[in-house]
């Protein structure tokens, strides 16, 4: 009666009892617990003789420690670290094994772990997630401090002086037309630097998740075509100076509403960055094309230049922080990073690809406001579609 | 000494361990390799997780017993004794976390001290996040200068995951001579 009771108890507790015969050979004592029927190696049944190290490869090492306890025969026991096996059902189950000598018999108890293990697992996972968050936070803080340093010392001070000088010069009488052109060029440059300054500040804010507010509402969502007109106007002089022309193509041409999910000011900045980037790489006499295309649920915006194309070694890193090509140094390398940050923030897609006619096509896709899904929590380490070589999902 | 077992039709069985700091993607690499799946969710490993995968390398059928060992941190220490009987191991670091690269170097030294020189391949994981890498090309070059085999992988996209496991198996088999010769020799040993 006692023996039967013990058998029921160990079975209900998910414990497999193995009695050692010789070496790694064991006999299954009593009825094995439910999980033993779905082991990947094959199910176990009562009185079956098995090689324990074949059933659980983990035990091959543990049995060496177990042998010491069995030989000592002093009533002591040894328990293994947990290990996890994938069952025939594809479920995973964690186990521990305990070796002890009882009534002259060398016993191995293999226990399928349940709630206790789950709790341990949850605590460990939480602790590690917190450790990772802490690590990430330290890294971000360090990067932000670096950026802030650059911002304060390299940009802000001289920029104010230069901007003031241009303002005074513009008020001067008797400037030749050529001179006025130069003043305009200078003001345009200070404007660009000022934009860069704001980008940096916005990046801090974006990464601190304080830019969560953006419009998915049809009434207030920004019009990408309006934004494009504003940006093209501001860049007109720069295009003229370099002898590069631009064209705006709409598909379909008659579409009257070009609303997308986002924030107007930031969207203008993204367009500015992409067009400014195209202009820097476009040789004189070529054309930069801004194309707006309506898709079923989104608007795709592409900027195509006829420049030398993206350097192969830069292709994967183009949207990263502080990235700049060998051919055109001189920028901090935050423009495209800003574009990626914001587009990702709005649950859009961004990428680049070689243009068939030479040059490069940078594109992004934003949902129309009426098709925007509720925003999911974005992770800092989420992949950006279209970033890798040849990875341009959704491109025609 | 690596133990070879035979299963029916001349199958070689190799124990392969995965070593590396916590959250470098060891469990995800095994999930990608053995089941072709990936989850963004962090899966902590307690102790060790054991999986199996049958592959063919250069015409040789091999069953891999994969020991996905818990990553080391302040909460847990890597049990180097689990390397006993291993034919080789994969040393994994996360390219976006330089600290894990440094820890990989320490783990390699501890492994060598514990079980001697085993074949291993270094996996520079999270290649899909290369724009966020802290580990530089120079760091990796320093490893290859030591004649270490380094493979960039992404458990997320699957990039070069199978290739990395195969590279290790190929290294193990070639260390023991040509595959056919090795089978015959190890058959006699076992």
Summarize the structure.
The complex is a heterodimer of chains A (396) and B (190). Chain A is α+β, with helices and mostly antiparallel strands.
Task: Explain what the structure shows.
The complex is a heterodimer of chains A (396) and B (190). With 396 residues, chain A is of the alpha+beta class. Helices cover 42% and strands 19% of the residues of chain A. Chain A folds into three domains: 2-113, Beta-Lactamase, CATH 3.30.450; 123-210; 213-396, Heat Shock Protein 90 (2-Layer Sandwich), CATH 3.30.565. In chain A, strands 1, 2, 3, 4, 5, 6 and 7 form a seven-stranded antiparallel sheet that branches. In chain A, helix 4 (115-171) packs antiparallel against helix 5 (177-207) and helix 7 packs antiparallel against helix 8. The longest helix of chain A has 57 residues, at 115-171. Chain B has a single domain (12-183), classed as Rossmann fold (3-Layer(aba) Sandwich). Chain B is 33% helix and 24% strand. Chain B is globular and about 40 Å long. Mean pLDDT of chain B is 84; it is low at 1-9 and 178-190. The chains are: A alpha+beta (396), B alpha/beta (190). Chain A binds chain B through residues 40, 57-58, 60-61, 81-86, 92, 94, 117, 120-121, 124-125, 127-129, 131-132, 135, 139, 316-321, 323, 379, 381-383, 387-388, and chain B through 15, 22-23, 40, 42-52, 65, 73-76, 79, 81-82, 84-85, 96-97, 99, 126, 128-132, 134, 156-157. Strand 5 (83-86) of chain A pairs parallel with strand 2 of chain B.
Could you name the key traits of this structure?
heterodimer, A: 396 residues, alpha+beta, Beta-Lactamase, Heat Shock Protein 90, 3 domains, seven-stranded antiparallel beta sheet, five-stranded mixed beta sheet, 42% helix, disordered C terminus, B: 190 residues, alpha/beta, Rossmann fold, six-stranded mixed beta sheet, 6 strands, globular
